[in-house]
Structures are given as C-alpha cells and as structure tokens.
Amino acid sequence: MGCFFSKKSKRKSSEKEDRTPTTTTVETTTTSNAVPLGNNTDEAPKQYSWDKREKVDPKDYMLTGLKDVTVGRLPGKLNGQQFVIQECENCNIYVFDHSATITIDDCVNCRIFLGPVKGSVFFRDCKDIKCVVACQQFRTRDCKKMEVFLCCATQPIIESSTGMKFGCFQYYYPELAFHFKDAGLSIFNNNWSNIHDFTPVSGENNWSLLPEASAVLDFVPTPDPESDFKSVRISTEAARSIVPLTKGGRRKDSEESCLFVFFAGEYTTANARKLIDEATAKGFVLIQTKEVSMRPEDVKRVFQNSADDLVEWITKGPVIALELNGDGVVEACKNIASEIFNGTKVFVSDNKNTSSRDVDNFFNFADMQMGL
C-alpha cells in the first residue's frame, strides 16, 4: 500500500572480425532545376538529391595510430555518425558529441571520454584504459585492466577480459543533456554495476566495482587548458552530473528503502532531480533509478491496492522511479512529497514494513520490461 499526492483530483573470441570502419552519409534534399516546356534543346540536366550528397571524409570519423597527444571531437562534429579509435598509445581522447556506435581497438594506456552513443561501444584488445562512457550497449573483448565510469542502458558485457573495474558515470558539460536526448538515452536507465561476464573463470573474478569514493578526475583528467577543448566547460562533481550518481550493486547501508515514482508531466525530470537533491541532503542514498513505460496491467501488478488511482496517469508517458535508502527514509520521502510535490502526481511507499516489496515489485517489472 502506498500513498500518492496530486492536485485535487556473439561470435567466438578466436574469430577475427572485419574491423574496417564504416561511415554514413547525410542526404540533403534539393529541388530539381525547372525546365520550360517546349522545344528547347539546351535543357539543363536534372539534378537529384544523390548528386548533392554531402561529402564525408572517413578520416573525420577516425583516430588512428596516435601517441602522446590530446585529441578528440568538439560538440557538433560527429552529430550521430559512427566513430573509430584504434592503435592509440598514451593519449587523452575526448569525444564531446553524440554518435551512432564507437569501436576502440588495440589501444594502450589511454584516458578516454565518450559522449552518449546511441548504439554500442566495443573495446577490443585494449590494455590499461581509464574511461568515462555513456551508451546503449557496452562490451569488451580481450581487454586487460580497464577502469570505467559507465552509464549503460542495457547489461554491460565483458568477454575474455580481466582486471575490469566499474563505477557510476559522473560528468557534465553544457551540451551533454541534449546529446543524451539525441542519442535516445535516458539518464535514469543506468545498469553500470550489473556486469555480465561472458567467459567466467572458476575461482577468479574478472571484474569488480571501483571504491565508492572514486573521483573521475583521478582517472580521466580534464583536457589541457592549451588544447582544442579548452572551450568546453566540464564538471565531474557528482552533484552536477547529468546522470544521477547511484550506489548500484554495492551493499546497502540500511535495511529500509523507499520507492518514489513520478508520473509523466512537464517537469518530471526536474522533479526527480529535485527529489534526489532533497533526499541526499538529508543523508539518504540513491540506490537505483529507472524510466520506463507502463500498461494498465503493469500498474495493477506493481502498485496493487493503489493502482486504480494511477492507471490514467501512465497514458501521459513513461514514469521515473527511484529507490532511496537509509533509516527513516520512508517517512522523510512522504514529507518531501507533501511539502514540495503536492501539486505533482507521485507514488511513495506508505510504510517501511511494505516498502521493500514496493521496490522489488517495480524494479523487477522494469528489468523484465527492459530485457535485463
């Protein structure tokens, strides 16, 4: 029973893959030249859209064979294209844009930032990599010793890889929120700690979580002030991160958790961020978040006795759910809901005796919905 507030109402590792980079082209539609009717024999040839196709230089979408340099792409330079990084050594690489897919091959001792990737990020045959990555799919193969601050919409996969360490994505630059939207990624769907090891070794652990206090700047520094990226205003403070900092799969500090759900509205994202600020300021911890669409039957299964009043609200769009943890968190969240979100449709766990069930019901449903 909860309370709610509203206005009154794979291929085998031994196989070699074709790593030839590909690029896509962008068509621009043009109007064909108008030709008057009659017997004019000097007609200009018709022009078609493919004659005016924008030229794409593959080199603009590759970083190859570099050593001891700071390189990358500024906002607006990729605009959703594919990108390839290969055979780089001791480089600082920054991709401050959204892209379709990114492959990173045969790189050693590099620090890498990758802006939102609509599809997959695939590291192959890399070693000693420290990176910050946001993507739909994350995969490594034949990699050694990587430290990754990750935002991944699906379950991250490692294969034939060892010494892998993961932390929660923490980064900000002014265009980043727009790049997440352009890449079709939700800042609330982050499975950074839910790693699947495709090739586990009995008695060994190929991956672990970074210490909770790990700071991005200790792994991936900001660009040199003299570099081409000096104009990008970057912050790695957890409080400013576009992606909320979550505890993920680490052990919870308290046995009391609370489910807090925002139903779709004009300020849903801003309200969820406000809740996180309010709750963390009171000492509570954000465990996990999800943004997912629901059907009427889902509402009845997840919210049970509170479902009737909530069904109409799911037609307006996806819901955003948060699990907050700490002694006294349920009562605190109910107070926050009534004081700050009194004009907003929300669901909050009603008491600490049933709140764990609320959390399990929702996030089990969300994981199934997202194929996790």
UniProtKB/TrEMBL annotation:
Residues 32-42 have a biased composition (Polar residues). One of its GO terms (biological process) is retina layer formation. It is a lipid-anchor. InterPro entries: C-CAP_CF_C-like (IPR017901), CAP/MinC_C (IPR016098), CAP_C_sf (IPR036223), CARP_motif (IPR006599), NDK-like_dom_sf (IPR036850), Tubulin-bd_cofactor_C_dom (IPR012945), XRP2 (IPR039093). Residues 21-31 have a biased composition (Low complexity). A lipid is attached at C3 (S-palmitoyl cysteine). A lipid is attached at G2 (N-myristoyl glycine). Pfam families: TBCC (PF07986). GO terms for cellular component: cilium; periciliary membrane compartment. GTP binds at G119, S120, Q136, Q137, F138, R139. It is found in: Cell membrane. It comes from the Eukaryota. Residues 45-200 form the C-CAP/cofactor C-like domain. Keywords: Cell membrane, GTP-binding, GTPase activation, Lipoprotein, Membrane, Myristate, Nucleotide-binding, Palmitate. Residues 1-45 are annotated as: Disordered. One of its GO terms (molecular function) is GTPase activator activity. Acts as a GTPase-activating protein (GAP) for tubulin in concert with tubulin-specific chaperone C, but does not enhance tubulin heterodimerization. Belongs to the TBCC family. This is Protein XRP2. It comes from Amphiprion percula (Orange clownfish).
